[in-house]
Specification:
Layout lengths: L4 E5 L3 H13 L3 E5 L2 H10 L4 E5 L7 H11 L4 E6 L4 H10 L3 E4 L4 H16 L8 H5 L9 H14 L5 E4 L6 H10 L8 E5 L8 H6 L16 H4 L4 E5 L6 H13 L1 E2 L8 E2 L3 E6 L3 H6 L5 H7 L2 E4 L10 H12 L8 E2 L1 H9 L5 H15 L4 E2 L6 H4 L17 H19 L4 H8 L3 H9 L1
Parallel strand pairs: 1-2, 1-3, 3-4, 4-5, 6-11, 6-12, 7-8, 8-11, 13-14
Antiparallel strand pairs: 9-10
Amino acid sequence: MCSVKLLIVEDDPLFGSALKEVITGAGYDLRLAASGAEALAAVAEESFDLVVQDIKLPDANGLDILREILFRQPHCGSLVMTGYGTIEDAVTAMKLGAFDFLTKPFPMELLFLKIESFLELKKLGQESSAHPETLSAFPEITTRSPAMLAALEMAAKVAQTSTSVLLHGESGTGKELVAEAIHRLSPRREGPFVPVNCAAIPATLIESELFGVEKGAYTGADKGRSGYVEAAAGGTLFLDEIGELPLELQGKLLRVLQEKGVARVGGTSFRSIDFRLVSATNRDLSEMAKQREFREDLLYRINVVLVRLPPLRERREDIPVLLGKFLDLFCPPPALKPEFTPDALEMLSHYSYPGNVRELKNIVERISLLHPGDKVNAHHLPPELQSPGVIGSTFETFAVGRPLREAVNEFEKRYIEKVVDYAGGHKTLAAKMLGLSRKVLWEKLKK
């Protein structure tokens, strides 16, 4: 490990010293900087493999320092830290080229997992710029968005490792397509790809579906059968919407991942299973872990490499390209294609798409069926596009005579519910629309 050079940029002297002691104790060569100026001086004097940097620095904007470091040393990786829960800054850092981020406080075990994962990717000798080969590896995904290209590049690189991957994105952003591509690009491509939608299986059945059942385990179990974990032997198990797993089952999944094997429900024999786990969620698992709704130790295990798939509203440059793709799909020759007028295109370009690419695809299919060969104006588009951003009347019907505070609380409840629904269940986006912090929104939702 001594050949690996790390730069730690941390202004807290106690935490910085602790990081230095632990990391050098693991055998890494390390230099510590307590400010942006010290960090820039360090990169001017020597080369680094990885910089682990706090976004909040006393003398400079951490994102500006990160940008300068990566400009001076483009082959250096970056892992950012934040203690303020500013996910937006962390996402911006990743767009600049950061490998991943950590939210303070974090266990040293997780830091080492991130470092080791980065070094494993670095050994592959692949650069982090998006090339045409990246898109060819994801033929089902159409994009020219830098954010999406960066996500696909990360997925393509991590595919060649055995690392657990967590895909994060709203519904309709293509998580299963990316998971399939990760399997297809991996050394396990000859093995099975087993997708499981955790939200679609009743809580009473999901344990037996995942781990299998021994004969006689319960009434009606007249024969033993394998589960999805065994079915994924030699291949990839894809757990979609893993945040919906019951809490008690999360501990059993953690044991399967740690021991690389499974015991069927009602059985005692242990079956060793070689499989790779790819998970996906549209929920904030870190926040769920804080609320004790998701096991923190399981999160560390599945979140070794995080790949974020941006929503369509953050990649609007893809909307015209996707329109053309879906028109070709639904109107193959000799079918007549609808022609979108400028006002319709303007409306399509500024809609928020809570259903993301899937919603745009459904809109184009509907227009293709109803208006083949027609000029499509704004009034031909679905009602939800006619007034983008409007989520319903602000004047609800209330019973007269109620106390004002009670009526205000009821209105607030309805409005928050509508905004969360409009945001597709994405709490961070809903909080931003409401002008609240994520913590305050979570508290109001719990209330």
